[in-house]
Write a structure and sequence with these properties.
By secondary structure, this protein is mostly helical. About 35% of the residues lie in helices and about 5% in strands. The chain has a two-stranded antiparallel sheet. A hairpin with a 4-residue loop joins strand 5 and strand 6.
């Protein structure tokens, strides 16, 4: 906290010398707020987050689908990201270079079309979106659908045409946040790894409002509405898509279901027991930050990990099709709450005189 506080006081909102990738005031304040949230000090976190919203340079990208685009570095929504250079191929010559090579990009392509380690997506996730939520089409291509950037249809190749594919029987659905193609050339690395976007700041602020003001916090629901309005494409109206964007923007504002009403019913249907606002934040984060490195940690921090898994991926004896005949995730494991924390590294225990093996986190 001392480090983050020092950084926030001495840095500006924009990076020094315009060198994006340097730590900024907004990044330091955001992670300080998150630290307070881990400590359950929502009041202190709320003050920092409100300051960021009121005085920071951040804005939501009008189109959710344009965030994960080729060479889209440090847009108005980025609070903290790691950017990567373009690389011409995916052979082993990338090893040992002085460039920052991130192989995670095209590796997420379906193996059916040359991917080496695809980012497979559960059928439950694909079915979880409300009608009209454009984050579904901007995030996933499922079996039978056509990848909008490459015009390749999933599941039409013999041996790759089942609901589950490969020797590990993984779902035949794929993330397209990182699987892109530009002008017929495979995109290998120039798509940033987003670790914190302004959308995350808004939802953290909403959480702090609920924690300090109660379940009926108007400000908390207002922030969720802002995220959902963007998700339904209402911020696209009057905007012009980037070049080669394979989707159409909304031409007029569309109605968005009221979040509080929708999630009250969703909570009942799924069997959640937590407050409606906590269910709403959980599912909005599930859809907003898919494949962006934060969702599991937010589940653990908010105490929602077990409830989310049990409601969205219930233990089913390991079957691959549900009672309605739909493909589903085979789950047999019982949730282990110890796994919401990492172990303290042995080297740290050995070299830190203030702790011993008795201080190790439970379960390790």
């Amino acid at each position: 906290m001392d480090d983050l506080d020092f950084a926030a006081k001495h840095l500006d909102w924009l990076p020094e010398n315009g060198d994006y990738g340097r730590i900024t005031k907004g990044m330091a304040m955001s992670y300080a707020a998150l630290m307070y949230m881990y400590k359950k000090d929502y009041g202190s976190a709320k003050i920092l987050l409100k300051d960021i919203i009121d005085h920071g340079p951040y804005e939501l990208n009008p189109c959710y689908g344009e965030i994960h685009q080729y060479n889209n570095y440090w847009g108005k929504e980025s609070v903290w990201e790691v950017s990567f250079f373009n690389w011409s191929n995916l052979d082993w010559s990338a090893n040992g270079t002085t460039d920052d090579i991130w192989w995670g990009t095209y590796l997420t392509a379906a193996a059916e079309y040359g991917g080496w380690g695809a980012s497979y997506v559960s059928y439950e996730f694909c079915r979880s979106f409300e009608a009209g939520d454009k984050r579904r089409q901007y995030s996933v291509v499922a079996k039978g659908e056509t990848q909008p950037y490459t015009n390749e249809t999933i599941g039409i190749t013999p041996g790759r045409d089942g609901d589950f594919v490969g020797t590990e029987n993984v779902p035949n659905n794929y993330s397209i946040k990182l699987w892109k193609e530009k002008a017929g050339v495979k995109v290998y690395t120039p798509i940033s790894a987003f670790h914190l976007r302004y959308a995350g700041v808004l939802l953290y602020y909403a959480e702090c409002c609920f924690e300090t003001e109660g379940a009926d916090s108007q400000e908390g629901w207002k922030q969720i509405k802002t995220i959902r309005d963007r998700a339904w494409g209402n911020m696209e109206v009057g905007q012009t898509p980037i070049e080669n964007f394979p989707y159409s923007f909304n031409q007029s504002v569309v109605p968005v279901p009221d979040a509080k009403t929708f999630y009250a019913q969703y909570k009942a249907d799924k069997g959640y027991t937590s407050d409606v606002w906590k269910v709403a934040l959980t599912i909005e984060r599930r859809h907003e930050f898919f494949a962006e490195y934060s969702f599991w940690y937010d589940l653990c921090r908010s105490g929602m990990a077990k409830e989310f898994l049990d409601c969205e991926y219930p233990i089913n004896g390991g079957v691959r099709y549900d009672a309605a005949g739909r493909p589903c995730t085979p789950r047999t494991f019982v949730f282990d709450p110890n796994k919401t924390l990492y172990p303290i590294p042995t080297q740290e225990i050995l070299t830190n005189a203030d702790i011993s093996q008795a201080d190790q986190n439970p379960g390790y």
